[in-house]
Specification:
By secondary structure, this protein is mainly α.
């Protein structure tokens, strides 16, 4: 039992070391991609639910998974030694993605398609770096 525990610690340390061997900019981009991917998953599933293309149970399971993965991303982000100003920006963006998924989960749970549509309409589709806004058309 002790050997298994020690082996799992060694694997964890090696995994973390491998992650931190990547340049900071690459790790920041990975955090952004993960957040955007799960937020867009929540959006897509919710849009499909609003259009009655998927059942409520499926949409709720998918949103539950998105919320779970965003939670894991939050833990991962806190362990990553990145500059504080960037960390703060990523935290805000991740909190926004989690709130988005939480809101959609509640609305689908209460079968409120109109509220879910409003939530989707209010949230920008742009998936750029945390804290950035889409370019303004001229």
């Amino acid at each position: 039992m002790r050997l298994g525990y020690a082996a799992s610690i060694v694997v964890s340390v090696l995994t973390l070391a491998a992650c931190y061997d990547k340049p900071v900019a690459e790790r920041i981009a990975e955090h952004d991609r993960t957040r955007i991917s799960w937020k867009e998953t929540a959006r897509f599933v919710s849009e499909e639910w609003i259009d009655s293309a998927v059942p409520s149970e499926f949409a709720m399971r998918a949103l539950s998974r998105a919320r779970q993965e965003l939670g894991k991303e939050s833990t991962s982000l806190e362990r990553d030694p990145i500059p504080q100003d960037t960390l703060a920006r990523l935290r805000r963006a991740l909190a926004g993605a989690r709130a988005f998924a939480d809101t959609l989960d509640r609305e689908i749970g209460s079968l409120d398609r109109a509220s879910a549509r409003r939530t989707l309409d209010r949230a920008p589709r742009y998936g750029g770096p945390a804290g950035s806004r889409p370019p303004v058309p001229r």
